[in-house]
Amino acid sequence: MKPGAILSYLQMCSREGVNLQRGMNYHLRGGVSVILMSLRPGAPYADRIEDNGRFLIYEGHDLPRRRGNLDPKMLDQPMTNPNRTLTQNGLFYQAAMGHKERGCQPEIVRVYEKVRSGIWVYNGLFKLVDSWLERDRHRKVFKFRLRILDDSEDFDSPQEDIEHTRLIPASVKLQVWQRDKGRCVICGSNDNLHFDHIVPYSKGGSSLVAANIRLLCARHNLAKRDRIEYA
Predict the structure, then answer these.
(1) Tens digit of pLDDT for each residue in 161-209?
(2) Beta bridge partners of 145
(3) What is the pLDDT of residues 99-111, one digit of tens each?
(4) pLDDT score of 91
(5) CB-based contact 47:59 (threshold 8 Å)
(6) Does 40 share its domain with 106?
(7) Cβ neighbours of residue 81 under 8 Å, at least 6 residues apart?
(8) Domain check: are 36 and 114 in the same one?
(9) N or C: which end of the chain has fewer CB within 10 A?
(10) What is the CA radius of gyration of the chain?
(11) Counting Cβ atoms within 10 Å, is residue 65 exposed (0-12), middle (13-18) or buried (19+)?
């Protein structure tokens, strides 16, 4: 599946072979980890993209909310569970430190982004390259730095298409979705949609403006390949 593919929640879970009930999922199928992100206004965590979509800064997750307990947003994000096993924060942090401090191979992470209710986008494969704790007002939160995996890099997985064109900002994705009415601009199909760059990133096209992004179905996305079109 190419970055930019649009999925429902059920399609996303089916692809991963698990019910994705949490945003951080360490070592799922094939040893690849999965994170779910959101850049929408009001999102519960402060994720962001940097360097024109080359890097993702992902915020760790809070303690589960339990009746009668303090608001999780008032508490430090946990490294360990009550039984001293690592939380998802701890597992990802440990993997990041293994790469940063000991030169271990970086954790490969598949990233999905929620664009609107019921609509998710596959953002592609990333390498987990760093992590740290920082203070957010009155508590400490985890931050994870992930670098997009370019198609020039080796990744031993024949089932993965790792062609990347840099992340499209959430505001642009939503604008394009609304403008194109959730349908392929060529045939009007609303199945197997992708966010497509009219002028590819590799040929100077921008990911930052809606005028260079459109919705295409899988058939027309594949037919286009890497050709520059001005339709």
Answers:
(1) 444 556 788 888 889 999 999 999 999 998 889 999 888 877 878 888 8
(2) 57, 130
(3) 999 999 999 999 9
(4) 98
(5) yes
(6) yes
(7) 87
(8) yes
(9) C
(10) 18
(11) exposed
